[in-house]
Amino acid sequence: MIQKLLGTYSGENQHQKLYLEVSKEQFACWTVDEHDGKFQNFELFQFKNAEDFTIEFKNLLAQSQFLQKYDANKKVIVIWDNENAQLIPAEFALEDQAWVQNLVTPFDANLRQMSATTDDYSINFEMDKSALDTLSTHFKEIKHRHKFDCISKVLSKSVAKSGLNFHLLYFTEHCILSAVKDGKLQFIKRIQYQSPLDPVYFILNACEQFDTKIEDAQVNVAGLITYESPLYQSLIKYVPKIDVEEVTKNIFDAAQFTEQPEHYYVPFLKYSI
Predict the structure, then answer these.
(1) What is the pTM (predicted TM-score) of this model?
(2) Contact 170, 234 (CB under 8 A)
(3) Which of the following CATH numbers is that of domain 159-268: 3.40.50.10380, 3.20.20.190, 3.40.50.740, 3.30.420.260?
(4) Cα 31 → chain centroid
(5) Tens digit of pLDDT for each residue in 187-199?
């Protein structure tokens, strides 16, 4: 079963680039104008007890207001968001050192190696066969990315800040926590939380590992979270320094995007380069 959670639209033109973000729990799709870079259409779907991605994708197409209209012969960016991924330093990701990759990423099949600019990391990840085959059948040209790849590139291009800085992105049933210390990426972790306190635990544990008091750490939050939610209330109870990430309004093509908090779109728009 699939359910649409969000839908915002500004129409279609011939210069749109389509992005898809795929996980077991959700499917996001949006278009960006290739000329001015403005965010145009956005939809977010949630999977509930989904077993066959092919069937769910057909249902998704029937509910979407713009996916079926998109030219399937044009290039599509697919961002895979799953836990089966590993950041590997470049010196361990050489072609003749496949045994190292297998050691740190012991996945079954469909293993792809991606290169990120942050400290010359490679991102090895696994894609779901059913989802991969279904999307490859529908769209003729796909560029595959992983969410860790996108996040690492954004953080590597950000202005280096001193101290320990966390970036916490919330999705429908999971979050992604990244840590940057003195401008250097330390880790990216996907957390399938069962309790609102789970992300707090990982932040506190990371502070201990990096010998930093929680009072001195900065946590930047974005995504599907409201100020009244247990997720946010748990954060502010233990984390003194919190900023909610937003995006510049002029990147939105339609006024309808203001109907939802800007930080809802940050994990998808900002972290998709």
Answers:
(1) 0.89
(2) no
(3) 3.30.420.260
(4) 16
(5) 999 999 999 999 9
